[in-house]
Amino acid sequence: MDKPDPQYIDWLLEQSMLNNARKLASRYAGQGRFWRNPYAEARPRAASALASVWFTAYPAAIVTREGESVLATLGDPELWRSLAAIGVQGVHTGPMKEAGGIRDGVKTPTVDGNFDRISFEIDPQFGTLDEFVAMSRVAAAYNSIVIDDIIPAHTGKGADFRLAEMFYGDYPGLYHMVEIPQEDWNLLPDIPEGRRAANMSPSSVDALKSKGYIVGQLRRVIFFEPGVKETDWSATDVILGVDGVARRWVYLHYFKEGQPSLNWLDPTFAAPQMIVGDALHSLDILGARGLRLDANGFLGVEVQQNETAWSEGHPLSLVGNQLIAGMVRKAGGFSFQELNLTVDDIAEMSKGGADLSYDFITRPAYHHAVLTGSTEFLRLMLRTVHEFGIDPASLIHALQNHDELTLELVHFWTKHANDTYVFEGQTWPGSLLREHLRDTLYLKLTGEAAPYNLRFVANGVACTTISVITAALGIRDLDAITPEQKELIKRIHLLLVMYNAYQPGVFALSGWDLVGALPLPVESVSELTSEGDTRWIERGAYDLIDVNPGAEHSSAGLPRARMLYGPLNQQLDDPKSFANELKHLLAVRQAHGLFAAKQIAIPDVQNNSLLVMVHELPDQRGLQVTALNFGPDRVEETITLEHAQTGPVIDMLHGTIFGDLPESGELFIGLDGYEGQSLRIVGAVPSI
């Protein structure tokens, strides 16, 4: 075997994110701009004040004009007129940079929807750097911002990984990768024909741990699939290094084999350099104002002799996130974390870390409420938010996103498995409560009840917001939805909007929500789902402003989803459309500053389908009460607002006055099935 070609090494260095990050960093040394902004503490309310309603795009799903890029479509002023009319203040683009891998000098496709980044360059299938900058400027013209992504936990198998495999410079320090001496290659798996790596069996991982090479198995295997991914470790084939030595490596990957994990505590500190460089590139070159930190809870891993490795909740993740988030704030931006861990881990990670957190805490609970007609679990999780000191205004309350509806319920699985909870009149340990809730959700969301939704490995369910609602209504055939059912689906969809938007924090909704997308038939994306990744059924292509009515696929090749609502520009011409009713809800929210309110109570209720959230509005505007009926039948109930002072009770959605709140604080609530209400008690503030 000959040594690698020096010209190939030079080409890889040109592509390398680490190399380009080091070049970029030199621009900032000694510059005063990094001392103009506070950075030590998270600033969630400053972030939501900048933009409290987000449209979350998914680049691969966007239908474009013929010959036009995704970024040109996202920068279209006509699109922004529609988004701004609804009340959108920011667009989260989703990952736009090149992803996938490099094999023998040829770039290979992404294996995880561009979450396996290999470059700071814009993926050519989405557009160019200039188009991204232009999109940022158009958004600014409509008083909106762009939110980009960085991925601190892993990369794809691009130039950086290939240089690491070839033992070039300090590149092996980028990854959790360990050279295995030739005398122990018998412990490694054979590499199938046409592959460069193979997943390791649990017994092989245990054997390498016993020899002191690696930290061993992790507590959970994300994307577990028998015969595909049984552990979080893979072994490479024999790789010839730049020094002429043949090596085999074992490397960690929390997610797919093509997503090698970064090592945040290595003497080279190569990983922090690379990720900070990526962040600065997005903020200062692309024009983004915010960044998602994806998979940011997996930055630390440590051996435990007789147990699985310590990873989730590891202090190194806290430190790493504080470094990233602090640097982003220093540069004048903000960050948010999409972190599906225990509630206490989310609270810890937010101290000096990301400014905002995705609301994985109540997301499965509000889906449970609409599927069962009971808000008991939802009330439990809303109160858990407060129990662990999390400000609801620091959360991003969202409808559908690009991922599955996660049913991992991690909080009840790990640290709190043996804690006691009261639910449905019984006492449950956390682990059994988790299984009971998961069984209920799987039963109602998949299988005979809703054959169009699919389980996603062991994590949850692939579905759209609409197909959650159709499952709740007992609709089995999406081709047979009647006009009356469509109106009821829209009504429940707006109820879910109110749950997420009518509490403090950021409200986010996707393109699939805006057009009312249904799941794709699995056979239409069979190549993408062949290894068990069923999420592709929920990622159908959508055309937001009818730029290409004849297109059957997005520019990335995803089939067009069936839509209940249609394009935004058409919806905005119909006063009774989903978009126009959404517009009204968001206008009321913005006018009263509800995103900046303080949540002060989640009252007990007699009607189990009723949810009530009580908020103190900013600037002494009084109390606000969000009341939602998650069931089909009318509810009437009187709740008591503790310590509230009397004042006029106003229906915020319709502008009518119900009279004054009595001295007793008793407030009557009457709601039809799947109806929501927002009440303001003028001048009433807690007297405590």
CATH topology of the largest domain: TIM Barrel
CATH class category name of the largest domain: Alpha Beta
Q: Sheet bearing the most strands, described?
A: 8 strands, parallel, barrel
- What radius of gyration results from the CA coordinates? 25 Å
- Counted up, domains total 3
- Molecular shape: globular
Q: How far do the termini sit from each other?
A: 78 Å
CATH architecture of the largest domain: Alpha-Beta Barrel
Count every helix, treating DSSP H or I runs of 4 or more residues as helices. Answer: 20
pLDDT averaged residue by residue: 95
DSSP strand count: 30
| Strand arrangement in the largest pleated sheet | 1-2-7-13-14-15-16-22
CATH superfamily of the largest domain: Glycosidases
Structure report:
The chain is an alpha/beta fold and 688 residues long. The chain folds into three domains: 6-41 and 156-252, no CATH class; 52-93 and 119-155 and 266-406 and 491-589, Glycosidases (TIM Barrel, Alpha-Beta Barrel); 597-681, Sandwich (Immunoglobulin-like). Helix content is 29%, strand content 19%. It is built from 20 helices and 30 strands. The protein has an eight-stranded parallel barrel, surrounded by five helices. A six-stranded antiparallel beta sheet has the order 23-24-25-30-27-28. Strands 8, 9, 10, 11 and 12 form a five-stranded antiparallel beta sheet that branches. It is globular and about 85 Å long. It starts with 5 loop residues before the first helix and ends in a 7-residue tail after the last strand. The relative contact order is 0.11.
